[in-house]
């Protein structure tokens, strides 16, 4: 299923879906073509088509993105039955003002020297496409929908599945 949303509507929809999901699984492409995923904390900012992450200079992510900038981010909010897959291009960004904007004291756990840590830099992911699955989070609604499908022989449709282009 594809939804015909404007660019702004696509950005708003994606922002709404992922705003309360802190951790995304970031998948990069290694030099040998294999895929590598790891959890990353999405930095809180008004989503405008770019997602931001703090990373360490010299990390594998930096090398993988330099080799192939295509990335995927997987977001999962199981209690609310929201799942989002985001595809885009990543780039390393050294921007002290952006680091200052996104910084919170909790980040010291990963960057002990604080926002002036010389190993701290940013990963920006420019989103090209997203696909989401949004189902009713109520167990009762899911059970009723499943039971209806079983009784009628119709396919169980637990919620909406939509592809959007940014």
Tell me what the structure shows:
The chain is α+β, with helices and mostly antiparallel strands and 166 residues long. The protein has a single domain (7-165), classed as Electron Transport, Fmn-binding Protein, Chain A (Pnp Oxidase, Chain A, Roll). Helices cover 25% and strands 37% of the residues. It is built from four helices and seven strands; from the N terminus they run αβββαββαβαβ. The protein has helices spanning 7-18, 60-67, 96-102, 139-152; strands at 23-29, 35-41, 50-56, 70-77, 82-93, 120-134, 160-165. Strands 1, 2, 3, 4, 5, 6 and 7 form a seven-stranded antiparallel beta sheet that branches. A hairpin with a 4-residue loop joins β4 (70-77) and β5 (82-93). The model is unreliable at 138-146 (pLDDT under 50).
Strand content: 35-45%
| Overall shape | globular
Helix content: 10-25%
Poorly predicted runs: 138-146
The name of the CATH superfamily reads Electron Transport, Fmn-binding Protein, Chain A
| First-residue to last-residue Cα separation | 16 Å
How do the SSEs run, as a string of H and E?
Answer: HEEEHEEHEHE
**What's the CATH architecture name?**
Roll
Secondary structural class: alpha+beta
User: How many domains make up the coordinates?
Assistant: 1
CATH topology: Pnp Oxidase, Chain A
Q: Averaging pLDDT over every residue, what do you get?
A: 85
- Level-1 CATH class name: Mainly Beta
How many beta-strand elements?
A: 7
- Rounded radius of gyration (Å): 18 Å
Count of separate DSSP helical elements: 4
């Amino acid at each position: 299923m594809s939804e015909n949303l404007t660019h702004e509507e696509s950005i708003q929809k994606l922002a709404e879906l992922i705003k309360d999901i802190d951790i995304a699984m970031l998948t990069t492409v290694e030099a040998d073509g294999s895929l590598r995923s790891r959890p990353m904390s999405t930095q809180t900012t008004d989503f405008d088509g770019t997602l931001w992450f703090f990373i360490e200079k010299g990390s594998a992510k930096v090398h993988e993105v330099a080799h192939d900038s295509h990335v995927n981010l997987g977001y999962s909010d199981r209690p609310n039955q929201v799942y989002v897959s985001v595809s885009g291009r990543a780039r390393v960004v050294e921007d002290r003002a952006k680091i200052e904007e996104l910084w919170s004291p909790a980040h010291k756990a990963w960057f002990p020297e604080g926002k002036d840590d010389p190993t701290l830099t940013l990963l920006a992911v420019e989103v090209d496409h997203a696909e989401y699955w949004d189902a009713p989070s109520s167990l009762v609604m899911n059970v009723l929908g499943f039971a209806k499908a079983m009784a009628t022989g119709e396919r169980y449709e637990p919620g909406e599945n939509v592809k959007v282009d940014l």
